[in-house]
Amino acid sequence: MALQDKAALLSSLALRIGAYIFLRWIPGHHLPPIIYTALALYVPSFISTFLTQPKYDVVEDDIEITITETEIEDQPPPLASTAAHSQNLPTRDKPTEIEEEIEIDETIVLEPNQPSPWKTLLTGLPDPASTALSLATFLINAALVLAVTDMLYRARVFHPEDNLSFARMGYVSPTEANLLVREPNPSQLPIFVSYRLAGDATVYGDSVWQNAGTITTLGNDTDYTAAVTFPIPNVPHKSYQWTTSNNHTGYFTVPPKAGQVSEQGDFTFLTSSCIKPRFPYNPFDHALAIPGFKHMEKVIRSIPGGAQFMLFLGDFIYIDVPKRFGTSVEDYRREYRQVYGSPDWPSVGQNLSWIHVLDDHEIANDWDGNTTGVYNAAADPWHNYQTAVNPPKARAAGGYGLPRRAATYFEFTQGPASFFMMDTRKYRDSSSELSVNSTEKSMLGPEQLADLLAFLKKPEPKGVKWKIIASSIPFTKNWKVNSLDTWAGYLSERQTILEAMWDVGLRGGVGVVVLSGDRHEFAATAFPPPAGGKWPISSTVHEFSTSPLSQFYLPVRTYKQTDSEDVMMKYIPDGNSKLGAITIENTSSNQSILKFRLYVDGVEAWSSVILSPPTISGNRWTKDALWG
């Protein structure tokens, strides 16, 4: 194989494999340069190969050699005397020589090369026997490069969503609701927000629209967003319709009071993390299509009574995947607008409350730089689009129940559960400078850790059977790839938190569950207390780590149990869309039921039921005996 043939083959294979991985497997930022470089090598080598490869095969090559011998007299010698003597000799005595005449006849039979469609189309090599096949395989590679370019740049160029107008529900408590509105068109101001009871309104009032608030000014300082908080009648389970004067509307349901459940006798919410529009790539999809939202809509419709809210665990945007276009505030804002501008967003966001925690891709991959660098640029839209309508800030330890003013982590109680939503990015120490067991290394920082421990220690109202801890990154150390970015890199602080969680179970009546994301895989992990210690087995902590909602999943297996501290319950790595549904039941009995259901690409793939610790007095032995 000639040099240009090898170059065409290798560059074509590199282009095709790279494009497939990028478009359907992992949209890594390092792949486009490889793909474009392969194209630059492929084009000239393809042309050279096409022009120089023979179009015919030699099927027969016959050579016939004919030798004719002729006897001729020697030429007279150059000396005159010798020549005269030679001429006087008789003919028979004259010197002669044999002259051979060789005739070579070669007959070559040529046959046109036969097309090799499979070889040509699969390898990208040109076929000299078929211009059509050569053109087709060239166009395949060209189409792949165009698809990569389309995925990289179409949303950026054609859908910056500068004119996006939308509204969504944030946190809804039994007494008030939070609505986020974006409107860049000044002619729509002022914007009036109203709500009314939906459905049958005869018992609790009529269906007259009630004023919820007015937005008089919007500006670029908040990317034309504003939050409206308005009181609602304290009538659990009732649904209300909200509307804005700039033509947005939706519905929300008043959640149950602390310690209570819905009319169906349960309390359901959803959880997941990680969104990237238009992945896996489909050339016929809208540039901002989010396939996972379609699966999520299907799940929501299947839940009796619907879900109370979506607890989103980070990576709502991917600023650096597949390509970072900049580090300015506008670059970050555009990413949020593109998710909210997706044609698939209304089906999951118009009638469902979304609350959020922060993770690395809202800032930069594996972020551990606190508030340095790009953090402030990233935090601007994070606060304007997400935390502006999040639950209340967490209460300060020793602060008489008052929220910590500068906190970027949140706390609330709703129905049968109390929630603490951690910020695992802003306050953490470097993941690599100190050892994983260092007592000086912190993920949360001293204030957030103190507030979390106070949250775990505080007694809960009657009927509240669960403490839910939201962590953007896995609590388990069983993920072995890039583990320093997870709680596996902060084991000393993790142990402190685990012991406080086990203390909750020791007191009885309330269980602890950790919800996390980030890994693009699903795993359920149990953290039993150490044998022979003061904690009963009923104080076991459980983690459900669910992601992505709409992104790639890892092609290699990265989760593995290596000890008895982190016990694998279930591991499901595959699936571009994973969504968890948590349902809490039986809050009036001694032990409450928490059921976790995992949906992969919209289909229930696994479920698990755990019980809250029993409310009984006594030591560990007594509680273990009753637990089982």
What is the structure about, briefly put?
The protein has 628 residues and is an alpha+beta fold. 26% of the residues lie in helices and 25% in strands. A seven-stranded mixed beta sheet has the order 13-14-15-16-18-17-19, with helices on one face. The protein has a six-stranded mixed beta sheet with strand order 12-11-10-20-21-22, with helices on one face. It has a four-stranded antiparallel beta sheet with strand order 6-5-8-9, with no helix packed on it.
Describe the structure.
The two termini are 72 Å apart. The longest helix is centred in the first third of the chain and has 28 residues, at 131-158. The relative contact order is 0.09. The strands form five sheets. The chain has a seven-stranded mixed sheet with strand order 13-14-15-16-18-17-19, covered by helices on one side. α1 packs antiparallel against α2 (31-52) and α1 packs across α5. The chain is an alpha+beta fold and 628 residues long. It has helices at residues 3-25, 31-52, 80-87, 117-123, 131-158, 291-302, 329-340, 346-349, 375-386, 445-457, 491-507, 620-627; strands at residues 56-73, 96-112, 166-172, 176-182, 191-197, 210-215, 225-231, 239-244, 248-253, 266-272, 309-312, 353-356, 410-414, 417-421, 466-471, 511-516, 522-527, 541-545, 567-572, 578-585, 593-600, 603-611. The chain has twelve helices and 22 strands.
Question: Could you give the topology of this structure?
Answer:
Layout: H1 3-25, H2 31-52, E1 56-73, H3 80-87, E2 96-112, H4 117-123, H5 131-158, E3 166-172, E4 176-182, E5 191-197, E6 210-215, E7 225-231, E8 239-244, E9 248-253, E10 266-272, H6 291-302, E11 309-312, H7 329-340, H8 346-349, E12 353-356, H9 375-386, E13 410-414, E14 417-421, H10 445-457, E15 466-471, H11 491-507, E16 511-516, E17 522-527, E18 541-545, E19 567-572, E20 578-585, E21 593-600, E22 603-611, H12 620-627
Parallel strand pairs: 10-11, 11-12, 14-15, 15-16, 16-18
Antiparallel strand pairs: 1-2, 3-4, 4-7, 5-6, 5-8, 8-9, 10-20, 13-14, 17-18, 17-19, 20-21, 21-22
Helix pairs in contact: 1-2, 1-5, 2-5, 4-5, 7-9, 10-11
